[in-house]
Design goal:
A: mainly alpha, Rna Polymerase Sigma Factor, Chain: A, about 75% helix, globular, B: two-stranded antiparallel sheet, elongated
Chain lengths: ~160, ~250
């Protein structure tokens, strides 16, 4: 990307930063690392981005790069530095229910977090997630099913407590 | 929990304004923030590289650089060769580097010994012998020290074994060199020996054999030890030995 493309990168960051930050934060459950991942994603975008067919193509490319970077970070990080419940107030304010759900999602295994996020929040279909993450459709379905059941179970457990 | 609740909760995550500004600033100025997740990895890699450079480079320089001279010292290996022949008794003499010993006339049909004998001794080591012409032979005839001379005493089993052009002794041993080849008697040959302490070459030598009208003489043209330097074995490579051998033989001729 040429220096003259600064406007374009700024535009891209503004357009996708929320969506990608959500993915990175849910995946990593750590704000600093999410920021690192986000920056690395946009740097790779500046250096390696292919010619995109449309905005959806560009979005999918960014999601794929961000999730790959998050996986790398998880592999490299030496200790568990996840958010605690107080940190969710930064995002959920006084909405306890939302904070509770967010905490449950963040505590899911990585592979379940990413499908929940892409399906329910970003609105991707099962076959699209399959392509994005490079896993089979049935694996995506199983992960979604597991994640739903796990969330439901945990939520019921908390409600009874 | 309904899907909408899930979406609503997660959608509340938005990038903090300050973080977005940082991101734009870093990306547009091409000054990437140092990635914290990689710091431990980079630090580990840097430490390993530093260690390798600190320890490895002097080691490599000392052991692998082609221009590094080997430190040579006296060889504790003792070599005896039969200097004279008196009937069935062969008397050995200690051969010193640079001296030539007349080993006598050798004729296979007439000799009572299978070849020209050499005795090598260096306790605590392995002595590897190779010869470039003729054959090495082991002959268990028994040797004893009589009046200061090593001599055959006939106490052995007389078992004879032709071992080809290479043999290894542990501590010591007597080998016979048979100059007889398919093309007739070899007029000259070179016996090389390497003294090994474990995997390390601690000694090397070259015996030049030559003959005139079937009268053979042996000259120890090189006999050297490779003492430890700073308490460590020297890295003696086959290439360095061959270079040494070539130089010695060229100078000797």
């Amino acid at each position: 990307m040429h220096p003259g493309d600064n406007c374009r990168i700024e535009e891209t960051i503004r357009k996708y930063s929320n969506m990608l930050y959500r993915i990175c934060l849910v995946y990593l459950a750590n704000e600093d690392q999410a920021e690192d991942a986000l920056q690395e994603t946009f740097i790779r975008y500046m250096k390696n981005a292919p010619k995109f067919n449309d905005a959806e193509h560009e979005k999918a490319w960014l999601i794929r790069v961000a999730t790959n970077i998050c996986r790398d970070i998880c592999r490299f990080r030496l200790r568990n530095t996840e958010l605690n419940i107080d940190d969710f107030e930064n995002y959920c304010g006084t909405d306890d229910k939302s904070a509770e759900i967010l905490e449950l999602v963040l505590n899911l295994p990585q592979k379940h977090k990413e499908v929940i996020l892409l399906h329910y929040v970003e609105g991707y279909k099962v076959n699209e997630i399959s392509e994005l993450l490079g896993v089979s459709v049935s694996a995506v379905k199983k992960r979604l099913q597991y994640a739903r059941e796990k969330l439901k179970l945990e939520l019921e457990k908390e409600e009874t407590e | 929990m309904r899907p909408n609740e899930l979406k609503e909760s997660i959608s509340k995550i938005t990038i903090p304004d300050a973080m977005e500004r940082r991101l734009i600033q870093n990306c547009t100025s091409q000054k990437a923030k140092a990635f914290s997740f990689r710091k431990p990895v980079y630090a580990a890699v840097a430490c390993i590289l530093a260690l390798v450079m600190l320890v490895g480079i002097p080691y490599l320089a000392r052991n692998f650089a082609g221009d590094i001279e080997l430190v040579m010292g006296a060889s504790p290996l003792v070599i005896h060769a039969a200097a004279t022949s008196e009937g069935n008794e062969y008397v050995f003499e200690d051969i010193a580097a640079g001296t030539e010993i007349l080993m006598g006339r050798y004729s296979p049909p007439m000799n009572v010994v299978p070849g020209l004998p050499f005795n090598f001794s260096y306790p605590g080591t392995e002595i590897e012998l190779t010869v470039n012409a003729g054959v090495l032979i082991l002959w268990d005839v028994g040797i004893s020290n009589v009046d200061g001379f090593l001599a055959f005493d006939g106490t052995g089993t007389s078992r004879l074994e032709r071992v080809g052009n290479a043999h290894t002794f542990i501590d010591e041993g007597c080998i016979f060199w048979d100059p007889f080849t398919e093309a007739g008697l070899a007029e000259s040959a070179v016996i090389e020996y390497r003294v090994l302490d474990g995997d390390h070459i601690v000694g090397y030598g070259v015996i030049q054999l030559s003959s005139t009208d079937r009268v053979y003489s042996a000259k120890l043209v090189l006999s050297t030890g490779f003492p430890k330097v700073d308490g460590k074995y020297q890295k003696v490579t086959e290439e360095s030995l061959q270079k040494l051998r070539q130089e010695i033989l060229e100078n000797d001729n």
